[in-house]
Amino acid sequence: MMERDNQPINLKDVLVEMKDISELMVDLAYSAVLFESNAIADEVIELEERMNDLVYQARITSMMSVRRIEETEPMSGLLQLAEASERISNHAADIAKNIMRHVSFPANLRRALPEAEEATHRTVVAAGSPLDGARLGDIKLQSVTGIRIIMIRRMRQRFYDPDKHTVLRSGDVLVGRGPEYGFPELCELAGQPVPGDDDLTPSPISDLDRAAALMIEMKNISELSVGLAYSALLHENLDLANEVVALEEELDEMRLRLDLWTLEAAKRTEDVASLRGMLYMSSFAESISDAASSIADVVLREIEVPAILKRIVRESDEIIAWVTVHEGSTLDKKSLAESHVGTVTGMVIFAVKHENRWIYRPGRNVCLYAGDLLVARGRRDGEEKLYGLCGADTDEIEDFEEE
Length: 403
Hints:
Mean pLDDT: 80
Largest sheet: 4 strands, antiparallel
Low-confidence stretches: 1-8, 197-205, 399-403
Number of helices: 14
Radius of gyration: 21 Å
Structural class: alpha+beta
Number of strands: 10
Shape: globular
């Protein structure tokens, strides 16, 4: 039996790492499908091993932390967060293991994945390219392309969520997350050609095309659900928590339609085995949404939300930001496309509250006005830039450390 380190562990640090790893595993699982990459799938499986250790630490630490009956309710909320992270991790690992078993995924799906609201991209730094020898902070890669590097593989070493001090080298494999329009510029900076549409052979099966498009919609909704769930938790917002539940119900219906279209496509293709991957992916998206609903359930059941839960959300690699657009600011009376808010800040706006109405997954043509509340996710330095564009003082950024 493997020996474990029994030194005292800070529960907050454990849960922050669990949240970060689970979200990274989702990114890498989709990337492994897109590139049919055993190497990326192997990264996911290794992260699952780390997650298993963290789950053990979370359980032991939580049991040691509760000394009085009144402490059990807030602890239940922490354990629900840990359980949600573990569920996301397990299903991401299942996708990776299927790739390692050579389960194929339809070309229709791989062709559609880059069309998701946030795609996961992979490229290699070529010798003599602008990225060779450059620091991430100096080249401002996220501001220039809108793509955040979430992993670097260098020979046998792996660097997860590199910071601005990380120096890139020739041969580094970069995995980044961001909008599709930033990928050509990332490839150019890395000294690599941009993959063309010819790299993926289209399929004539209309049912499968429809299923692939629906799968991307499910991917977007599942990731939106996670962002909204953490945001609901951070601000104890019942409206957002209820929206997470509604999105889960919508996604359940979408999975039924996707499975039906995939089965219909099986009648018209000789490569039936490739359709298994589509069914695995629909289950994956649904599982992510279910985990998000579990997080929102903490708010819906009015479980006491301790300050530590809010610090976990704020201190993770990808934070949730709330900021109001001020009159006369850069964003006032401009669309998301005109303001280039995603490229400038690296933040993804996943919800806008205009007057008393919420707009989820706002498109590039959505116009922002003074008084609008923006909900975004991204890195902390991007949050500061977003506050600047909104005309807000960075002193308004909530600090849950002081609660």
